[in-house]
Amino acid sequence: MSENQRNEERGLPRVKPATDIVETEDGFYIYMDMPGVSKEALVIDLNEDEIKVSGRTAYPASEAEEKLIHVEFGNGEYYRGFTLSHIVDKHRINAVLKNGVLELHLPKAEKAQPRKIEIQMG
Amino acid sequence: MVIDFSPLFGQQTPLDRIFEAFWSPSMAISQRPYAYPPVNISETPDAITVRCELPGMDISEIDLTLTESSLAIKGERKSAKGKYYRQERPTGAFQRVVNVSAPIDREKVAARMKDGLLEITLPKSEASKPRKISIDIA
């Protein structure tokens, strides 16, 4: 997905949110920087092995008398997709949006319990 | 864009930035050639507003210092513990200084944070507002 690709309907630039992927003992964590995205504007789609995250920023429109002096960021649409590994338990995925950072917790699936086979002497 | 050569070759003009954006379409948001954090500054007749994208920071972790002519935004972004497979989010200490040219009413400075956006309102002091003076012509 090209980063500078324009979203046709709103004319918003589409950006890939900066992402960290961390593995800990209780599974994987994906952190995405999505400043300006409210909980209502965030969409997380899980389809088979693919997880897609998108969100639109909703910065307040500047008032008529407000004059912009210096601009480095603006409204945009964040979009990013991931393919999940089979070791992730898809039913227990948990998402938290706090201070503009989306935290996805992907717990590892319970491993199949190793089974010991008793050998009977015939 | 891992190594930024631009400071050796003088100031980067806005045209250079446009050219660079076309040149490297895969440029990630964390590697853009601006300083961190990105800042928007706007002005009304009554106040100057500084907006700043600071995802993952709590307002209590941000250190704001207002001096005679500048506003400094300081803080540190910490990283999570664990095994990193991918790291694109910037971490570590950051500082951004915004020059403020108008006299500010220090008592009324307000800062708030929502969804990773920091908004600092610097009301201009009464003395700096333009006043209409009528001159009687004799």
TrEMBL record, chain A:
InterPro entries to which the protein is assigned, alphabetical = A-crystallin/Hsp20_dom (IPR002068), HSP20-like_chaperone (IPR008978), Small_HSP (IPR031107)
Which domain of life does this protein belong to? Bacteria
- SUPFAM superfamilies registered for this protein in UniProt: HSP20-like chaperones
Q: Which part of the chain is the SHSP domain?
A: 10-122
Which family does the similarity line name? Answer: Belongs to the small heat shock protein (HSP20) family.
Q: Which PANTHER family match?
A: HEAT-SHOCK PROTEIN 20 FAMILY MEMBER
Full protein name: Spore protein SP21
Automatic annotation (TrEMBL), chain B:
Domain of life, source organism: Bacteria
Domain SHSP, first and last residues per copy: 30-138
- Which InterPro entries does this one have? A-crystallin/Hsp20_dom, CS_dom, HSP20-like_chaperone, Small_HSP
Residue span(s) of domain CS: 34-133
Identify its protein family: Belongs to the small heat shock protein (HSP20) family.
User: What is the name of this protein?
Assistant: Spore protein SP21
Highest classification ranks of the organism? Bacteria, Pseudomonadati, Thermodesulfobacteriota, Desulfovibrionia, Desulfovibrionales
Q: Which gene is transcribed and translated to give this protein?
A: hspA_2
